[in-house]
Automatic annotation (TrEMBL):
Pfam families: LSM. Keywords: Ribonucleoprotein. PANTHER family: SMALL NUCLEAR RIBONUCLEOPROTEIN (PTHR10553), SMALL NUCLEAR RIBONUCLEOPROTEIN G (PTHR10553:SF2). The lineage of its organism: Eukaryota, Fungi, Dikarya, Basidiomycota, Agaricomycotina. Coiled coil: none annotated. Belongs to the snRNP Sm proteins family. One of its GO terms (biological process) is mRNA splicing, via spliceosome. Residues 7-62 form the Sm domain. This is Sm protein G. The keyword Ribonucleoprotein applies. GO terms for molecular function: RNA binding. One of its GO terms (cellular component) is spliceosomal tri-snRNP complex.
């Protein structure tokens, strides 16, 4: 049986990241946590709306 490996996201912890989520949403923020299923916790998040517009979202779990 094959073993499931942890995602290689430790190097991005506590750093500002730009994420492309399902459904075409784009979010930027500070990566605070993740799990083996790629659920992410992003703090100080902003949704990128296009045309330079950003909507503050606070902390999100995706």
């Amino acid at each position: 049986m094959s073993r499931v490996s942890q995602p290689e996201l430790k190097k991005f912890m506590d750093r500002r990241c730009f994420l492309n989520l399902q459904g075409g949403r784009q979010v930027s923020g500070v990566l605070r946590g993740f799990d083996m299923f790629l659920n992410l916790v992003v703090d100080q998040a902003h949704e990128e709306l296009g045309g330079g517009q950003r909507k503050p979202c606070g902390m999100i779990v995706s």
